[in-house]
Amino acid sequence: MIKKLSVGATAAFLLFAVAFPVYGGVEAEVREGLRDIRRRIENIAEDIEKAMEQKEAASFPRIPDGFRFPEIRPYRYEDYGVEIMYMQIILNADPETRLVESGVGSPGNEVKRFGNITKNAVIKFQEKYAEEILHPWGITEPTGIAAIQTQKKLNKILDGEIIIEVIPPDKKAELKARLVEILQDLAALRAKLEGVEDIEEGAVDAPTNVRGAIIGYGEVRLTWRGDRNAEYFTGYIADRSGGPRRVYGDTADTSGIISGLEYMETYYLTVTQTVDGEESGHSREVVVTMDWEPTPFRIRGEATDVGEITLTWETDQRNVEEYRIYRAQKQGGPYTIVGTSTKREFVNSGLGLYTIYYYVITQVIDGEESDFSGEYVDSWFYNWQGGPYPHPEKEKILEDIDYDL
Length: 405
Fold this sequence. Notes:
Layout: H1 11-17, H2 28-52, E1 55-57, H3 82-93, H4 116-128, H5 130-133, H6 148-158, E2 162-165, H7 169-194, E3 208-216, E4 219-225, E5 232-238, E6 246-251, E7 255-258, E8 266-275, E9 278-279, E10 286-289, E11 297-305, E12 308-314, E13 322-328, E14 336-341, E15 345-349, E16 356-365, E17 368-369, E18 376-379, H8 380-384, H9 394-399
Helix pairs in contact: 2-7
């Protein structure tokens, strides 16, 4: 899994980002270059963490002085007004609650409409300040509705409450310049490594081009390039960089699947190869954080009887206990569960004529329910006309649905 390098990266990730293969006979010059780069990374990581600890009161020049949310009526999905835009401006000031990074709804491009993206940002805001917004009312889950407690917190921020972690522009530019310099030196060192031959007689090179990708719940596929004379390859797993490593298994192929990994845990994976009975050193580490929670996908619907739609879908999981099917009558919910299935198929009956339905599906693994799938939109009438072929006006009807922010 590829992570994007950013000024806000942690020290651990920065060290991973420049991890090197382990060579048996790397020249002293290259070794010293590697040690120097690691020292520089540790220093810049410390500076980044210190910079991120700086806070300042948020300011909102686009919100009129003296404006405060009334704390009388809630703002909810599909509401419209200048207060919605002001709320979006505040949410966008904090990277943790920002609507989107670019386009409509991004900082400087706020609008007066309360749509799905705004709702998701309100949910993030309520999760971040749950102690102040949700818990006083005995609520444990965010609602996505900007009611009294949410508006009170927004007003506190308008009153100058310190909530935003900032990196001053000049410091940010300095950190970026140092990162660019490190990456340039790293590229030069990698080029030098490619020309270094192993001078230790009898040493076995480690596998190269090791890659890792999350392919399913708790599963990672590793691929690599090995010696054509290798008798077998051994996969290792560790809970921190550098070990201690545990043997996962052996294979004669240049790929393998590691399974049973825990959600949101980080693993450090390496591969060795055995040639003429001698095991090589470890390959470079592949660092994988199991932060991908799969959901059902490729949902399809077909009208199979009067007032009835048969839904089908796909999953890349083998151990799903059941699927839960939810439905709403407007985009983004709220969704109501309409049934469960142990197969990748569900028949939903009793559908109304001319009514547009919005479906999402979750899957349960080890008793844990996944996030919602992407939304599937359909109507019994426009699917039924002509059997499996959509009614000619179906696309026109669906195009009329309001998908604005």
